[in-house]
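User: Run a structure prediction on this.
Assistant: Running it now.
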Amino acid sequence: MPQSIGENREAGEIPARSRHCEEFALSQETCPDTRRLSTLAQRCSGSLWVPILNPAEACFPLLEHRRSVGFVFLNSSRFIKSLSLLLITLFSVAACSRSSAVLNNPSTNTRRITDDAGREVFLPAKVDRVISLAPNLTEIVFAVGAGSSLAGDTTYCDYPVQAKNIEKVGDTQHPNLERIIALKPQVVLVSTASQLEVFTEQLRSHNIAVFVTDPHDLEGVFRSIEQVGQILGYVEQATALVSSLRARAMAVDNALKQSPRIRTFYQLSAEPLYTAGHDSFVTDLLKRAGADSVTANVPGAWPKYSAEAALAARPDAIILPTGGSMGEGNGTVAKALASSPAAKTGRVYKINDDHLVRPGPRAVEGLEEMARALHPEAFK
């Protein structure tokens, strides 16, 4: 049986469950509805001649504004008796207004976003110091134009070249919490739920938020870009980038409409043999590139694959992610696949691993490279 790998190879991590960003709303218990306020106001007004014309006027049952002459009249005979009830009404409205302001007023100090782990994350209204704990997230921060906001990243973060000059906070699996806290970020971007228990409580005590991204397909990558743009205040730039990347992906789709699909094995590493499983965003890239992944239904993102299963798979093509951060690693076909139709016919394709194992903007380059390798006739 395939065994799922304990880390995501793009940054050494297991992703978390995907969610869309969403805003939250007040409940009726938090903010009384207008009917309740109006009823309370009517009780407060008693025998006063003040009419309650709309919910807004319910907040002021002792006053009438004579719009025609611009005067306000008071029925003083019941003023003292009604004052206490008026104050209750006003306090209810004030409480509602304060709560609504926190949620909806863009000038408030905090906002709330749901991350891909399903966690509601409180963020400052303006974020200008962020730490990235994954190479793909570092690439996204720079790609949306927010590189100046990056206070720290990991030793794996090597693209773009500017990322190499950012303060390092350890690697993805072993970040230095003391260093992270010392750099005083407002948000730490991660792409693994396994880090949350270690990070969240310690960072929360220093008013540092933790935000998780977890793309399982190319649309998920696009969502990650939009999320980072939203967090850092670069919404327009992120939207434009996603639009451009989506157009390139659509161009590949159009080019391959008449092309036959090819049974393909994605070899993440040879010894031990790992591949892309059902939950990996690479499986979606393969599908978009005109391939039928022979491991598309294997549970997990990066499962370990047995030699027996590889031998029985008999793929017609093999993708080797290599030549990027891996250097020359993973440059040869695994022994279990040496007698496969793909190996015998020479349909073994080396693709820059950074374009395939990092769910960031360059994933579209990986898609284009795989599509051209598998279907060169469609791009002539």
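The longest strand covers residues 262-269.
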